Amino acid sequence: MAELLDDLLKAAKYGDAVETLEPVDLATLVDETWPASPGATLEVESSLPTVAAEPSRCRQLFENLFRNSVDHGGHGVTVRVGVIDASEDGEAAAETVGIYVADDGPGIPPAKRQQVFEYGYTDSEDGTGLGLAICWRIADALGWEIGVTESRDGGARFEITGLHRQ
């Protein structure tokens, strides 16, 4: 019940549009938000940029994505974070960048990939169904887009695009 209440409060807090952005070093943020989870491994596959964001919301977004990968990926899950190649996501402007968080867990079936961002959707007995919905709200408030596809290892790959470089 405490986890559910905490998630509901975060959902309410992070739903409003962001007016003031600050430079956020994603390499530092990823390092600080990675959970010390036995058996889970983090690999940063490319140099992560500094982007314009609201630090606490950006932190919450990565915490939720990492928690999702660790909780659903099982023991021994590897989570990879990197920059989306501009040719990969079609972004031509050098001032914007895309980031991915991918794992080698069981993945998300194509038919459920939009549902995972809906409030209350979960396939776990322990889940609240709010973590990824909060991610979507944070991305939206920051003017970013978030989506999910399959990682190269068959797991989930969350792609966040429209981030402005600093």
Question: Can you describe this structure?
Answer:
With 166 residues, this protein is of the alpha+beta class. The chain contains 5 helices and 7 strands. The chain has helices spanning 2-13, 26-33, 55-73, 86-89, 131-141, and strands spanning 22-25, 41-44, 50-53, 78-84, 96-103, 145-150, 156-164. The strands form 2 sheets. The protein has a 5-stranded mixed sheet. A two-stranded antiparallel sheet has the order 1-3. The protein is globular and about 40 Å long. The mean pLDDT is 87.
Keyword list:
166 residues, alpha+beta, five-stranded mixed sheet, two-stranded antiparallel sheet, 5 helices, 7 strands, globular
In whole angstroms, the N-to-C terminal distance is 39 Å
Shape from CA axes? globular
Neighbour order of strands in the largest sheet = 2-4-5-7-6
Task: Estimate the mean pLDDT confidence.
Answer: 87
Write a concise synopsis of the structure shown.
With 166 residues, the chain is an alpha+beta fold. It is 33% helix and 25% strand. The chain has helices at residues 2-13, 26-33, 55-73, 86-89, 131-141, and strands at 22-25, 41-44, 50-53, 78-84, 96-103, 145-150, 156-164.
Task: Record the SSE blueprint.
Elements: H1 2-13, E1 22-25, H2 26-33, E2 41-44, E3 50-53, H3 55-73, E4 78-84, H4 86-89, E5 96-103, H5 131-141, E6 145-150, E7 156-164
